[in-house]
Amino acid sequence: MTESKRLKNFPWLECDAGLNLLASANAMSVNFTYHWLSSPGSAALALLWLSRPLFAHLFHKPLTEPRLVVWRHEHEEIDRALAWPGGDGCVLSLHGGAATRAGAQAALQAAGACPQSVPNLWETTDPLARQAFASLPAIQGELGAKLLLACATHGQAAWRHYAQLSPEKQKQLAHAWAQAEHLYQLPRIQLWGVVNAGKSSLLNALCGQTLAAAGPEPGLTRDVIEGRLEHAGFVLRLFDAPGTGHGGDELDHTALALAERWRAQADLTLELVPPGAVARCPGALVVYSQSDRDPQRRQPGISVHDADSLTRLKQVLVEHFVGALLALPPALRVAWPPEQLAEIASQAAAS
Fold first, then answer.
1. CATH architecture of the domain formed by 126-351
2. Does pLDDT of 203 surpass 80?
3. Which of 51, 116, 252, 329 is the most exposed, fewest CB within 10 Å of its CB?
4. Single pTM value for the model
5. Cβ contacts of residue 155 below 8 Å, gap of 6+?
């Protein structure tokens, strides 16, 4: 499922409505109510509002924060959906196909739930909320989902605040909001450095799996290798590449030319400088690799054998791309949908 890949670090709840039935009369007494917030159709998403008691009954646990849920009925999986608290109830973002909707409706009937008339958020709320819901399939990571849903909660208030600022303050806020782009288009980080600087080892350590061959033999990496990591809910793409300063045959030149092309496309170059070497890549973010073997103990140091240094580096990378956005007050910390980001950028440029 797309959502499970995108938000893999969310906690999961599982439901099997066929094993969790109450009589309809009893369900009514504890407010087992629901309402479809979107009309049937061919949209990618279908939004379903559940009363809090009904959600807790279906998934065996109250909902206190956004999370992914597995919804089953009679041992058949209905969908894997994003759920978040909304007002006096909970909202599920389901896939929009007819089969998913029919399965959900059957599970609700089996649980004795009753439809309730509530405001139709999908069709009648403000356009900012509609844009936020429509952009859910495109957002990446737990952080992105939370900040995008914040648009539906207090997007209008944030927009009014922006409109009241001076042109200079508007530009500052627009700059912070623009970092939401990295929640839709994942940032690319190119690992760079001389051969044996520890690039492949660092890629493996940061991503938590063996993606690239690593060892004392120089020139092991001859291609560009991609890995992904998620820290604080933010997803990053890392690329390992052949090291510089090794050999002079045609294969070495070809490998280095490939690395240079990928570096030109990166959002950030992370240069690893091993003991005894100096930084050589202008504009790169420099870290001193293999710090456990560095007699100078240069900073910022990184070692694949030092978990704290790896965590610090992850945090530095997150702050580089979304630090200004996360530094905003909670009421302004929103991940505007791409259409809204374009409008904000246009207004800030014109002011």
1. 3-Layer(aba) Sandwich (3.40)
2. yes
3. 329
4. 0.69
5. 126, 128, 129, 132, 334, 336
